[in-house]
Sequence to fold (128 residues):
Amino acid sequence: MVKALVATSATQGFRDSDYHWCVEGELVWIAPTCVKDRDDPDGGCGCGRGFAGLSSHRATTTAMVSTLHGISRDDYVMVLRSSVEEQGYDLADVTGLADSLLDLVADLPDGAVLEHRLDYVQVRQGVP
Fold:
């Protein structure tokens, strides 16, 4: 089993720039930031503050930590690789990306809601 990030609508609306177009509970990753959002997470695209869905290829500004029973690290790497290739990304080290995403949440409790702001990923503070 692995602990990973999944799309969630929890805490949506905490920021005026929130959005949630993913399928609730789908695996998400942090895609490269485009030119529009490179210097501003609230830029015109939204990728500077979003998590990208591995299935829907849509995005959300909130992701939840979830333990995925019956999914191994190798399974996770395979799903991530398949999705990023399908979306047209040419990533040289998908295994390293997978490990960094898994490491990011390894010590966080299930149910923690995270937000992404350019180079920072943090647990949402000040939410009920």
Summary: The mean pLDDT is 93. The radius of gyration is 14 Å. The chain is about 20% helix and 20% strand. Residues 73-86 form the longest helix (14 residues).
